[in-house]
Amino acid sequence: MSALPTAGIVFACAFGGSVLGLLLRLVLPDHHRASDSKDVVKLGMGLLATMAALVLSLLISSAKGSYDTQSGEVTRLAANVALLDRALAYYGPEATDARDLLRRSLIRALDQMWPERGFSPAGLNPAGTTTEDFYQKIQALAPQSDAQRSLRTEALAIATDLGRTRTLLFAQAGSSISQPFLVILTFWITVIFVSFGLFAPANTTVVTTLFVCALSVAGAIFLILELDQPFGGLVQVSSGPLRSALENLGR
């Protein structure tokens, strides 16, 4: 789900609910807005606000967990690239072609995962890389000593882990946010804002306050959805570890 349109819908529902509450206040009989009625509404809205806070915390936890997991996998990817390049360097000049292919593969992966065209979707499909060609290039090495055989085995293991990590990133590219949770949360927020407007005087200060509150809630939903899409939008996983690894390849 797209972050900005969804946040816009949440804002429209919240602020629209507060405006609806202000309009209902004008048409409801006085006894519906008496102190006894107000107390019951406050109790109900307190329960609703507590449930909304719990659901919101679940969404934050889910989005942050997904972001941290994929950030850790990018760091692991960078570490494996550096280790693989060192293993091939120790293997000898015979592995030069494999090291060159590793560098080209990393450059291509960076261009796909962090496209320079701003908000273009990241290309995480492992089928779009040269992982298989690189693995075959290492397999084609003909070790002449025990040391080279050990390095070739280690390089194959690291290359396999690289492919596994890239596949994990692709598999986790979907949203971790439960859409029913988000729909229910939006409904609860709308009802809460209706209650705000129902017992508030219709003046500029109140309307401005309700507008800012609705905007703040929508901003929170926007940030949650941005965290849930770590390779696109404003809040992205840093490409720093992979770019640092790229700078040291071939040395």
Measured by DSSP, the beta-strand proportion falls in under 5%
Q: Name the poorly predicted regions.
A: none
Proportion in helices = over 70%
- Number of contiguous helices: 8
The description of the largest β-sheet is: none
SSE-based structural type: mainly alpha
Mean pLDDT: 86
Shape: rod-shaped
SSE sequence, one letter per element: HHHHHHHH
Write down the domain tally.
Answer: 1
Count the strands?
A: 0
Protein architecture, described:
The structure is a single chain. It is built from eight helices and no strands. The protein has 251 residues and is mostly helical. The chain has one domain (3-114, 123-248). Helix 2 packs antiparallel against helix 5, helix 2 runs parallel beside helix 8 and helix 3 runs antiparallel to helix 4. The longest helix is centred in the N-terminal third of the chain and has 57 residues, at 35-91. It is rod-shaped, with a radius of gyration of 27 Å. The two termini are 43 Å apart. The relative contact order is 0.22. The model has no long low-confidence stretch (mean pLDDT 86).
